[in-house]
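Example 320, ligand PMV.
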Amino acid sequence: MTTHRAIAHTNIALVKYWGKNPGPGNVPAMGSLSLTLDGFRSIVDVCANDRDSFTLNGNPAKEGEAARVLTHIELFRKLSAKNLAFRIESRNEVPTGSGLASSASGFAALTLALARAFGLNLDSRTLSRLARQGSGSAARSIFGGFVRMHGGPEASDETAFAQPVDSSLDVRMIVLQCAQGPKAIGSREAMIRVATGSIFYEAFVANHPRILEQALHALREGDLEQLGAFMEQSTLQMHATMLGCDEPFWYLNPVSVAALNRVRELRKAGYCCYFTMDAGPHVKVLCDAHEAVRLSAELESIDGVSAATVCAPGPSAALV
Ligand code: PMV
């Protein structure tokens, strides 16, 4: 029986999306900008079956994870008008569910493999829109390198897609693992909590377009210092929304905080390096490609950091 295999790489947002528009389609309430990484990826195999099934890293998936994947298959059944069922086997070469964007690479690869399995010949914009329905950040993992995602209060299923952005910047991202195991609060739930209960959310949304435009400008100009500065603003403003909730929560742990401080110290010492964090405790450091190896050695020595992985810009999602 034919197996359709696709591989997609994770991406990390430089300017975050953090909230969804009301209604269907998982449409982001704001745009975002990301970098696809070569170091972490998901491999998804799709094989015809008498019923839908889903295994993650070799084990039957948990109920919530399986439900999202089954909904994605259903999307393709409707689109193709073909009543087919599939066995899905997904492997993450990245810690799952810990804020290292495994859902981005997983849903991007799943989207490509399902399109092929259903016999659909889709352009990359349509693939990006479909991937978005599984996970907002997955829309960006369809593409390699720097990627812009469109969103905003007026955005719709048609207009919320990602596209690559050219830049002359030669960068690396160092991923610092600052904890083990999955995070306590998923990004979906966290977004609902901040959008409905944070006194800082409105300010985050209002300020976001300015940060995105300035970050895009810095990227086009090849200005890593400016890009890094806007990336840090976006990160800290996103994390501030969680502190402003009626029931506050945070993803930072003592190791994350030590890493943020070390990045600032290293910058004072002359390195061109900037931090970002997502819905998890890990810290990612954007830096000049030439300094990545030396920086990684400095960052690896932080107490509690269990791994420092230097990632180059990664490729687009692809069928194998
Ligand atoms: O892709 P989602 O819906 O799990 O959300 C990802 C949200 C952040 O990683 C925190 C930010 C982003 O833009 O990737």
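Summary: The chain has nine helices and twelve strands.
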